[in-house]
Amino acid sequence: MPAVLTPATDAAFAAAGLQGLLTMGGLIVAIGAQNALVLRQGLARSHVGVVVALCTLSDWLLTVVGVYGLGRLIAASPLFLEICRFGGAAFLALYALRAARRAWSGPAAALVGTGTVQRLGPTVAATLAMTYLNPHVYLDTVVLMGTLGAQHAATARLAFVLGAGLASLLWFSVLGFGSLAAARWLRQPGVWRAIDLGIAGVMGWMALQLALRPLDI
User: Fold this and answer.
1) pLDDT for 56-106, tens place per residue?
2) Entry pTM
3) What one-character DSSP code corresponds to residue 215?
4) DSSP assignment string, 107-118
């Protein structure tokens, strides 16, 4: 027999959905690996819809996994956290070096045109790697969002997951398609150099933080 919705359950559903929306929104707005990739693809006008969809679905999937139980298991595994820590640091450091190389030695025309000639396969691979090889993604979605969402009852838990998914969809859509709309004005060699330098700085700082400091749960 289906559950009967009452004003109390409606209020709990709405509150959990709002919590999921605001919490996820606060976590993903900060400049990070996924955001840097989405921004660059948007400015390059290269497979923006695919990248936005992959980032959104990945965040939603990891949040679902965390809310429905895996978050507590990951938090309780020091070995897994250390693997994530050093593996993620190495990956982010490599990405930082690649961005710095583009900004330093790439000719101006290549800086503007790099993204426009990129094939779909490498774009998908880069997006998935940037998502699933970054330990901060697991901390934000599986562990933190999972811990918060698991505190709700079954119906409200679903609302929390939906709210979190909506936040990811809104943010990555604005970032990707917003930069796509602005690409006409921003696709200048100097802008590309600044973007790649910024990406290199952010990725390098994140890699250093991961290498020097244990993951806090």
Assistant:
1) 999 999 998 888 876 566 656 677 767 767 776 777 788 778 778 877 875
2) 0.67
3) P
4) -HHHHHHTGGG-
